[in-house]
Each structure stands twice: as structure tokens, then as C-alpha cells.
Design a protein that fits this description.
Layout: E1 2-9, H1 13-22, E2 28-31, E3 44-46, H2 47-51, E4 60-70, E5 76-86, H3 88-101, E6 105-107, E7 112-118, E8 121-126, E9 129-138, H4 145-149, E10 153-168, E11 175-178, E12 188-193, E13 198-207, H5 213-226, E14 233-236, E15 241-250, E16 254-255, E17 258-260, H6 275-295, H7 301-311, H8 314-327, H9 332-344, H10 347-354, H11 372-380
Parallel strand pairs: 1-2, 1-9, 2-6, 4-11, 9-17
Antiparallel strand pairs: 3-5, 4-5, 7-8, 8-9, 10-13, 10-14, 10-15, 11-12, 12-13, 16-17
Length: 383
Amino acid sequence: MRSYDVIIAGSGISGLLLGAFLSSELNVLILEKESFVPRNKYWLTDEQCANEHKNLSECIETIYESMDYIAYDGTKATVTGNSILWNTDRLVELLYNIIRKNGGVIETECSIYSIWNEKKNVRVKASNEDFSTRLLIDCMGNSSPLVLAKQTVSIVGRYSVAGAIMETAPDISPIALQNVMLQKKPSYLEVFPRNDNKAYVAMIAPSVREDRTKEIMKHLHFVTTQTDMAEMFLSVDGPPLIGTVPVGIVKKPCLNRVFFFGEAGQCNPSCSATALTRMLYSVKETSKLLSQKIQADTLTKKDLKECCYLSNSRLNRKIQMSFFKQVLKFNSDKFRQLVVEMDKHPDKLVNDLIFSTYRFSPFDIGLLFRRGILGQGIRGGFI
């Protein structure tokens, strides 16, 4: 049986990020069930969190000065403010190399199927091996058997995502959300151009229970081949980007010597592509606290709860959930109403709500009494 200070389950971006920081002080093992380290997601953050991690600057793909939100009839809100698109391959490679340089271990094709507590350790069974650790960190996202078996999150709904990297026409503008087709239950196009005349292009759709992946794959094909937008998209370059992102309310922020981070911890529940913002803001403080407590052998469940709320404030979690519940009820006209409202509000407020960096101040008291979708969403954070 092998023993480690920390075992991280999942080598997605949340597992690699936390592993890169923890491995500088602790003995870290990362277990990945697939035969490879996944690179099938794209990430958008605000500029400030990128500025706090200068060592990752080589992984920045491009900086957008604005992004568009567009309704089915062309009504548009252009929201200004620098946003960072990260190069997934470079970011994964850099974090992977940091972990290995620090002496950390990453093992693939190793699926966790059982855990239990023993005094001050956690026993972990993964594939045909047996491990012991002071702390297990769950970064397995929606596939986590712990999240499902222990019911740590109450699922409210989900986002279905279907997309691809596509070769595009030059000089296209980033689209944060566009409801291209008039629908009772809208799907939304995202287009995030890179520096190489390619773009991350995806269709996303919220739902309470159903998996809408097949439906939105058809929508994506239609939009990119048969509409007046088709001239923007030249060809598909690479494997499909397909998945389902659950959105829920955290019921148990941690278990005994088990900490949830990233999607498994619902860091930024209703904006999956921007969740890296919350992880980057919290990872330094989280890893520092965990390292100190593990080295001093004083780690408690209270410490893990404190780390959970470093990843996102209670207020922002509630605001995010309030907006998601509204989005579940949207039709195309309701989304158009939101676009009109966004165009009337300060750009900083809109960006703070998108990236879950909102900080309520006395100057914002008027927002609680505003009508409309944004006002209702913010009020939901105080109920």
C-alpha cells in the first residue's frame, strides 16, 4: 500500500491546478480514470485573476476587450471589459510539468471505487491498488461517485454542451451567448476566437433533467452550415467537445478528510466555462491552508469547510443559482429581454455577475429594488 499526504481524484484543470500548488509542499498523487490527461474544455476568466498568476501568463491565448450577447432578432449587448481566453493545451502542459518537477505523481487508468476513514487517514481503492492519504480531494466533477453516493450536491439542473474547435474566417468577434433560433427552450451559441484563425464553437442548453446533447448537436450543425452565419465557420478541426455540466446546491461542502474542488464543489455553478476564474482566485489561499494544517497534523472538518467558501462566497453562489433558475424558464423572448437589460447596466456589474466576482456594497442597494431579470437575480442572493 502506498501512502501520500494528498490524493487528488481527477486530472482535469481543477485537479492539476490544485496539484501544482500543493505538490510544492506535500507529497501528492493524482489519479485519473482515463488513459490520458483530459484537454476537452476551454476556459474564460476575468483579467484580474490572470494578473494574480503571472507564472501562467504564457498560457494566455488571447484577451478580449468586449463580448457580445445577441438575441434571435439581432438585438445585441456589447459588454466591455478585458476577458482572458486560455490555451487549454499550454495550461495543462505547464501544470503537469510543475507537478512532476515538484515530485508529484500522476497515474492514468486508475479509477477510484471505494474509500473509508481510518483514524487520521483515508483509505482509497483505485483499480487494482490500495492507497492511504491524509486528505482526499475530489476533482472528478459530475462523474464523481462520492458526489453521487454521499449526495453532497442537490442537483437543480444541468447544461448540455456540444461543440468543436473550428477553422473560422479572420477577425470574428467573440460571442458570449447568442440565441440564434427562435425557441421555447433556447439553446445558445458560444464563439471564442483564438489567435490562429480557429475558435472554440459550442452550443449550450440548460435543462432540469433531460440531456439535450443530441438536440444541440443538430442545432450547432444547422447554425454553422445553413444559416447566414455559416460563412464564419470553415471546417471542424479536432474532436468534438461534448459533455453535461450539473448545476446544484452544495449540501455537504466536505466530508471527513474529503474536500471537493472545482466542478465537484460547484465553484461557479451556472457558468461552466468561467469557473476557472473562481479556482484561480482561491487556489493559493486554499492550498496554503491545507498545506499548513496537513504538515501540522491538525486538519479538521472545520478547516475543509473554510476552504470550501474560499472558492466562492455564499452570496455569489446564491446569485448564480438564482440566475440559473430563471434561465431554466427562459424562452427566446425572455433572453431578448435580458440582452436589452444588459445593454442598460454598467459593464462592470454584468462582468461581475458572469464571472461570479460580485461584491455587494451600499452603493448597490438600488439594485435590490430594480425590476427585470438582473434585479430579480441579485435579490435572489439575499433570500
